[in-house]
Amino acid sequence: MTNAAAVTNPSAPTESVGRRREFLYFAIRRPKVLVSATIILVFLAIGIIGPIIRPGDPNAFVGPLASPPDSTYWFGTTTFGQDVFAQFSYGVRATFLAGFLGGSIAAIIGMVVGFVAGYTGGVVDEILNMITNIVFVIPTLALLMVITAYLSARGIVVEALFIGLTSWPWAARAIRAQTFSLATREFVDLARISGVSSRRVILSEIAPNMSSYLFLTFILLFGGAILIAASLDFIGLGPTEGVSLGLMMYNAVAWGALPLGLWWWFLPPGIGITAVVGSLYVMNVGLDEIFNPRLREM
Amino acid sequence: MGRYFGRKLLIYALTFWVAASIDWMIPRFMPGDPVQSLLSRSHVTPEALPALQAYYQNLFGLDQPIWAQYANFWTSLLHGDLGRSVYLSGTAVTDVVMGALPYTLGLLVPAILLSWWSGNKFGAIAARRKVLDNFFLPIGYILTAMPYMWLAIIVAWLFGSVLGIFPLSGGYSYAMEPSLTFDFAASVAGHWIMPFMSLFLVMFGGWAIGMRNVIIYELDADYSRYLGSLGAPSGLIRRYAYRNALLPQVTGLALQLGVIVSGALVTEIVFGYPGIGKLLLAAVQNQDYFLLQGIFLFIIIGVLIANFLVDIAYVYVDPRTRVGMRGGAA
Amino acid sequence: MSLQISDLRVYYRTLAGDVKALDGVSLEIADGEIMGLAGESGCGKTTLGNSLVLLDGRMKYISGEVLLDGTPLPIADYEAMQELRWREVSIIPQYSMSALNPTRKIGRMVDELLHSRGRQYKELRAELLRRLELVGLSADILDRYPIELSGGMKQRLVMVISTLLDPSLLIADEITSALDVSSQKAVAQTLVEFRDRKFVRSMIVVTHDVSILYQISDTLAIMYAGRLAEKAPTGVLMEAALHPYTRLLISALPEMGSRFADKRLMGIPGTPPSLLNPPTGCRFRTRCPLADAQCEEQPPMVDVAPGHAVACWKVT
After folding, report:
1. In what order do the strands lie in the sheet with C59-68?
2. Other Cβ atoms closer than 10 A to C181
């Protein structure tokens, strides 16, 4: 579980024109992108299709207690006789949702703060910087645990909202830096001279030229949100209803899966998270190489 | 130099103020009455209820005007009084947290330092040899994508349950009392090794991958090329590249602190290790808000101190910061 | 020292194929000669200069021979070249502004660099200081970090460092491009002085700015699209160039004292060909006013006078 920015920071965008065909050409040929995208899609499919072929409450007590995987219960059952696969597929759904929503909210906030700070500069920049630094330093989990502890009923949306509200700083910083460098370029000056409003300049001149960078940033935020959500769920601060991968892991540990060796209970959720997050990181690197030809190794 | 540190300290002070204020505000602005929700979940007899209610009212200071409550909060905070833990029957929160702190620090500090140092070295080596790189890269990404608690679970399962080498939980053997004996120390070490390993491994993956990427970038930089053109042996070039690559890794350390702390907390929960993580879980499960808030403040202070230490370290590592401070000539 | 380059080919590896940046160039440089190598961006002059010192990751040696003082220069062999770098062949790179390690004091870097090449800083320190003074840098520069220096200072510093071991051959790659005009003149003159004081024996000065070369070089070689177009002593080239490209290039230069009402500054219409799949025959023929069917065959480099060679069917 890492703040992915330290691991795989997307590098600066090159002069990008909408060369869609070239992009697709290289995207398909890059195993990193292909493999990681496939893995993500597979898990997404499980999350969507799984609950359809096994409908019903994933927490219901349906089967034999603590039995290993077999043909009926593909992932075995828990100590209470719950279907691990059903929990897993519902959990994948919850994980994707939390990650996507949380990542999107963080991305939006990060973009707003980053664009405004980078483009406007001056006092506004200073103030936004200070706010960014403050939110940055506060450890997310610590803050989240205090906030969510007070909410007696929590849903995925609320969880995603809080994650989004606390994990935007590094994105804001990165976007600000990029906006800074783009804002001094001639085409922006041209737009400004033509009397285009600041908001439109940002939306129609700067943002499109950073589109690949923004996309990569979103991917990293997505991955990060998944990890934070999993930790929150693990401590018991996730959604009060339903099931999630983090919650599965907590239950496994709390109800003795470790000494009893019920590996089918705690391995799948972890594999799911690791696979999805890892694929997001690798896809980020792969896409980065496409967007920035300089990075392609010979 | 004064200006640089002054600015940092200002931000940290501000951050602490904001964080502590948020901490204070939350119970008061959450939907519902905090005292009622505390009461409804505490298991007391109906006779004791009014007394407890009065106690909590007093504790939260809800009968006083808002600004007075806020001022009281800060006064007690600055006196080191973080309230009393409900779940631990009235022990001072400060005492409770201080009791758990050594265990957490005992995990965190060695894990951070060792993983940072060895991860960087390893990442630099991986960047050199293509074979090692191809083999290691996927492992590194997997390690760093793993949620901390899951790796903890796997380590606990493999070494504790399956192989039975190490104990599965606790900070030391349940049969022992803390004492300055060799046996006790050995027991502590035995219980320490698995949580330490699992923390270490996840962080190691992150640092190694980060360093590998940065070094590749540095080896391609103009100054590396120039040295090569002048016939400098690859050893010198690599040494310079490594030295320069450490800079973003030091800043990276500061960025990661929040994440690392969270990781330590959940790892402790998996191993039942008697540190702050386990305390946190208990606080959540028992709805012990004072304990929860106390832990939060401790974590904040710890992270701020660590950030400051990293800032100091950075000034040592990057000579340009010292130059900027004494005013360079053109 | 003498340098002979015969039919040198160095290509760049790219995902789309090999870019034939240097495609068969032959040159000779005599002892004490300053040769200017000029041409448009992408003509291969930087590739030529760099290939004599260090083949970077993307460059691939294909064929051709380089003889330094009669012995082969093993440019394709990284290890074998190590001995010769800095001592025999050296380069002032195009990126001089960023060529210094930002986190090391200058003096310490030079010390460590010398030590790694088996030389002692102590024995060279006096000479180093003398040369720094020569280019107008004070001794305390050794105590500074690169970030504290201006662009011009860094350029001069790199010039001194690159020539510290008195190489036989020095490549100066676009060293005036990032400077203002008066600095350009100072740097160009410094180069000549280095040669005159025998810090360096011979030089190849690579640039797209022909006017600088006019001031300092003994001979001029013009490159186009990876090949040599013309080579002659400077005066001859400027007055009596033969190759159509050279003539267009020179007529595109403004002259002191000319009034622009009289003469139009002519650019050369068209663009250089792609070097990924270059056309057969003379590469200039698509833009050349003299081209015809004969030019579909590559013209050889022919001596029209002692020291003056041209590659063009129409003038030989």
Report:
1. C17-29, C3-14, C59-68, C71-72
2. 9
Answer yes or no: do B261 and A142 touch at CB < 8 A. Answer: yes
Residue range(s) defining the domain that contains residue C277: 3-254+266-310
Cβ of B319 within 8 Å of Cβ of C113? The answer is no
Min Cα–Cα distance to chain C from A217, Å? 26
Q: Is the Cα torsion angle C113, C119, C120, C126 positive or negative in sign?
A: negative
What is the per-residue pLDDT across C68-123, written as a single tens digit (0 to 9) for each? Answer: 988 899 999 999 999 999 999 999 998 888 999 999 999 999 999 999 999 999 99
Task: Tell me how many domains chain C contains.
Answer: 1
With cut-offs at 50, 70 and 90, classify the pLDDT of residue A1. Answer: very low
Q: Is C261 contained in some domain?
A: no
Residue C277 lies in a domain: yes
Band (B233; pLDDT cuts 50, 70, 90): very high
CATH number of the domain at C14, please.
Answer: 3.40.50.300
In a domain, C72, yes or no: yes
Closest-CA distance, C126 to chain B, in angstroms, reads 20
- Whole-model pTM? 0.83
End-to-end CA distance of chain B: 20
* Residue range C41-51, pLDDT digits in tens: 888 898 999 99
Neighboring chain C residues of B320 at a CB cutoff of 8 Å: 102-103, 145, 147
Q: Do C99 and B222 touch (CB under 8 A)?
A: yes
Lowest mean pLDDT among A130-134, B58-62, C219-223: B58-62
Helical axes A211-235 vs A84-120, angle rounded to 10°: 130
Q: How far is C14 from chain A (nearest CA, A)?
A: 7
Strand, helix or coil for residue C170: strand
Is C278 exposed, middle or buried (CB count within 10 Å of its CB: 0-12, 13-18, 19+)? middle
Residues sharing a CB contact under 8 Å with residue B13, sequence separation 6 or more, in sequence order: none
Residue C316 is assigned to a structural domain of this protein: no
